[in-house]
Amino acid sequence: MSRPHLIGLTGSIGMGKSTAARMFRDAGIPVWDADAAVHELYKNGGAAVAPIRALRPEAVGPDGVDRQKLNAWIAENPDALALIEGVVHPMVAKNRQSFIDAAEADLVVLDIPLLFETGGEDRVDTVVVVSAPEEVQRARVLDRPGMTEARLDHILSKQLPDDEKRGRADVVVPTVTMDETRDHITALIERLRHA
């Protein structure tokens, strides 16, 4: 089988990316999840634990890499993020390629929250951005346990603004209602399969 058509799925926090990914899965499309891949690398026994311990021993506990401690290190040390990425990015890339190679499918979705921020759009054939109006986004995120306006604003400050993401997308999937989202995803799958 030739290489599958790669769909890069992204969107800012609260825009419905997880729901869209589930809809692709429900349609029989394999979905690789970047966050889940990192979680596997960071958990106790994960491939990133020893290299992260070598960089920052206090960032590793009995359960593996402590992301809060990593984030604190990043906040205090301007070189920390590049050091961490130097360890983790090659491992994530290997995991992603293994998933693509094993997929045996015509379409594969790569669910990557920071697709644009990491230059990932160059590694996919079609970029899909999920989007909803700002008031819908904020309401969804603020409904999460422990979320505050200040925390949400901090997270958004680290992400490319939604209007920029939409401007760089090949396809924008609106996520205000489940039916609307499903209709757009179904139509996209059909279009890509018959392109």
Radius of gyration: 18 Å
As for the CATH topology of the largest domain, it is Rossmann fold
Structural class: alpha/beta
Q: Give the tally of structural domains.
A: 2
Number of helices: 9
What is the residue-mean pLDDT, rounded to a whole number?
94
At the fourth level of CATH, the homologous superfamily of the largest domain is P-loop containing nucleotide triphosphate hydrolases
Q: Which range best describes the helical content: under 10%, 10-25%, 25-40%, 40-55%, 55-70% or over 70%?
A: 40-55%
Summarize the main sheet. 5 strands, parallel
Large-scale geometry: globular
| Name of the level-1 CATH class of the largest domain | Alpha Beta
**Contiguous uncertain segments of 5+ residues:** none
Give, in order, the helices and strands. EHEHHEEHHEEHHHEH
Q: Strand fraction band? A: 5-15%
Count of distinct strands: 7
Main attributes of the structure:
195 residues, Dephospho-CoA kinase, single chain, Rossmann fold, 51% helix, globular, alpha/beta, 14% strand
Task: Report on the architecture of this protein.
Belongs to the CoaE family. The chain is α/β, with parallel strands linked by helices and 195 residues long. It folds into 2 domains: 1-29 and 107-195, P-loop containing nucleotide triphosphate hydrolases (Rossmann fold, 3-Layer(aba) Sandwich); 31-102, no CATH class. It is built from 9 helices and 7 strands, in the order βαβααββααββαααβα. It has helices at 17-26, 34-42, 49-55, 67-76, 80-102, 134-142, 149-157, 162-168, 178-193; strands at residues 5-10, 31-33, 60-61, 64-65, 107-111, 126-131, 171-174. The strands form 2 sheets. The protein has a 5-stranded parallel beta sheet with strand order 2-5-1-6-7, sandwiched between helices. A two-stranded antiparallel sheet has the order 3-4. Strand 3 (60-61) and strand 4 form a beta hairpin. Helix 2 crosses helix 5. The longest helix is centred in the middle third of the chain and has 23 residues, at 80-102.
